[in-house]
Amino acid sequence: MKIYISADIEGISGVVNGSFTSQREYDYPRARKLMTDEVNAAVEGVKLAGADEILVNDSHGPMTNILIEDLDEDVRLISGSKKLLGMMEGIDSTFDGVLLIGYHGRHNSSGVLSHSYYGSVVTEIKINGNIVGESELNSMAAGYYGVPVVFVSGDDVLSGQVKEFNPDIETLIVKKAHSRYCAESIQPKLVHKLLKENVQKTLENNLKNIKPCKVEGKVELEIAFHNSGMAEATLFIPGVEMVAPNRVKYMAKDIIEAYKLRAALVTLASSTL
Predict the structure, then answer these.
(1) Pair (53, 98) in one structural domain
(2) pLDDT confidence tier of residue 24, bands split at 50, 70 and 90
């Protein structure tokens, strides 16, 4: 069994505000340790389920958060940026399943630190007219290669969004959102126990029952930005169409092209900050 893990930081238990998520802030070293420990707990469950190959992709911000010296020795780690497939760098058809660890709700939902890829730039992302966040779009990217996302951890708002997207995906709620910057978190030692147990159970009992999220044919990507200047900056890419002062569309040949274009559009828009 070969398993892929994409790990973010906002959905880690105990992480509640920007002091945990930015390299410049005082709680960031704590968050790195908390993130690494939750990934290790998930890895324990993966190994107990019989996996013989595990790839972890560090998927938050600069993508250099996970402490490799503290990581399980049986894991390979992708870190650093830029990555052509971002949070799903390294995914291909050889994997049996994907775990999303430490994920969060999409922008303008009530979850802890909710956003969609770049919170100070993006206000909404749509695929074929449907609003998506990171968990949904990353599931679609994995689905292109025929690989299902089978397990997601984060707060209760994220869990609800995942279940709405695909009720077969197993979720673990590690904290309950009280507000955007406040959460009721489960103590990390208990989170690790729950992660190990639930990941093992999911892979042993449900892996073959969860289908990949396949998006066939051309894909309409739509992104709304915080202001019109950001949208205007994306028009350097041929085929990008402005459909509102702060909103653009692009018709991609498939979901992977849409995934890469999303990154390119956000990079251009962020140049106006």
Answers:
(1) yes
(2) very high
Does residue 12 sit in the same domain as residue 140? yes
Q: What is the pLDDT of residues 103-143, one digit of tens each?
A: 999 999 999 999 999 999 999 999 999 999 999 999 999 99
Q: Which CATH number goes with the domain that contains 198?
A: 3.40.50.10780
Q: Which of 209, 228, 256 delimits the end of a domain?
A: 209
| Distance from C-alpha of 157 to C-alpha of 113, rounded to nearest angstrom | 11
Looking at the chain, list the stretches that DSSP marks H as alpha helix, in order from N- to C-terminal side.
18-21, 28-48, 134-144, 156-165, 188-205, 228-233, 255-270
Q: Is 234 helix (H, G, I), strand (E, B) or coil?
A: helix
Looking at the chain, how many residues does it have?
A: 273
Nearest to 223 by CA among 253, 271, 256, 264: 264
d(CA 178, CA 171): 19
pLDDT tens figures, 63-107 = 999 999 999 999 999 999 989 999 999 999 999 999 999 999 999
115 labelled catalytic:
yes
> Which domain, by its residues, includes 201?
2-109+133-209
With vertex at residue 116, the alpha carbon angle to CA 128 and CA 42, rounded to the nearest 5 degrees, is 105
**Mean of per-residue pLDDT scores for the chain:** 97
Tokens 């999911």 sit at which residue?
202
Q: What is the rounded CA–CA span in Å between residue 96 and residue 257?
A: 23
Catalytic residue among 60, 104, 107, 115: 115
pLDDT tens for each residue of 228-266? 999 999 999 999 999 999 999 999 999 999 999 999 999
Q: Residues 45, 166: one domain?
A: yes
CA distance 75 to 68: 9
